[in-house]
Design goal:
Blueprint lengths: L14 H11 L12 H10 L14
Length: about 60
């Protein structure tokens, strides 16, 4: 969908690869967006040294 709107995108095999590619291609003023499930966002937070507790969240109780 981002490509459809003229935004630059990068496909990667996994979250770690995606964040490394984002860091490599980052230019001043860019915005890096991580979307997906709580698990995916929690995993991304873990890769950048933040609390990754979102990994355990679920909408099912």
């Amino acid at each position: 969908m981002a490509d459809k709107h003229g935004l630059n995108t990068i496909a990667a095999e996994d979250t770690g690869d995606a964040l490394r590619a984002a860091k490599k291609n980052y230019k001043e003023g860019d915005l890096i967006v991580v979307t997906g499930s709580f698990y995916a966002v929690g995993e991304a937070k873990g890769h950048i040294g933040q609390d990754s507790s979102l990994i355990g969240l679920t909408e099912f109780r």
